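Need the bound structure for hexanoyl-coenzyme A, inputs here:
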Amino acid sequence: MDESLDTVLVSYDEETGVGTLTMNRPDALNALSAQLRADIVAGLRLLEEQNEGADGVALRAVVLEGAGEKAFCAGADIGGFSSDSAGGSSDRTHYDVIRDFPTPVIAKIDGYCLGGGLETALACDFRLATEDSTFGFPEVNLGILPGAGGVQYVTKLAGPAVAKELAMFGDHISAERAADEGIVDRVFDSDEFDDEVEEFVSGLTGQAPLAVQAIKKSAQMAVQSGLNEGLRYDRQLFVELLNTEDHAEGAAAFAEDRDPEFEGK
Ligand code: HXC
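Answer from helper R.:
Posting the output first, comments after.
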């Protein structure tokens, strides 16, 4: 499936189960206009539809990337700010939809990843970046703060001092520092980036899809809730997974000393 929305290219590879969303405003460094935010949501819905009528889980992972040579995303479109950019009057922003999306979403970052662009990456499950990428919250230079939880999430990943440094100074940091701080998961040479991302994603898509989805929900609960609530939730997810065909397949494959074939059932 290949579909071109106004500002997002959507593709789905049936063989691998990987969907790709490309933010496609390269002339504006993929800045998040209202249209782009809406198209990310629409693109995710199109990808989710691949599961309809499938035997098990068809869509195993989504890669989110930016078009052009310079940026993943340079943040909210400075020409078109409104309280809506942070979800002011909308029920669910693209950040929420990515966070709650059932399958993992991987941010493939090559270039600027700033402001709302960094918050978009933080909403993803993994952040993979080229060594030349740069990260930051320049909002303070506009007299605002990262309105989509940037300080909250960086505080959880890297601690309050790093979050405050990024948001109060507004400077860009390197991919290497972002990885040292735990904001980025992996940094790769530019030459090897596509192959490395493909390998990372294929490692994920081979895993039992329902277990992967449950782990995403568990991790989300860990960020949002207290420990006791999280432990109760994990036990419930665990019992649900015990009843899946994938669990039976995983156990059988172990006993038979072969690779499992998971279908998401
Ligand atoms: C709209 C943008 C943009 C943005 C870049 N462009 N960032 N347009 N919104 N956020 C446009 C430029 O106007 C320019 O258009 C083109 O992209 C290329 O950018 P240049 O500045 O010429 O490129 P360069 O000199 O390489 O500088 C790159 C840059 C700089 C360092 C990334 O563009 C920059 O500082 N951009 C602003 C980044 C920023 O402040 N982001 C945070 C936004 S606030 P033309 O037409 O001139 O070629 C935010 C709040 C989130 O994100 C809140 C969430 C709720």
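Comments: The chain has two domains: 2-205, 209-255. The two ends are 23 Å apart (CA to CA).
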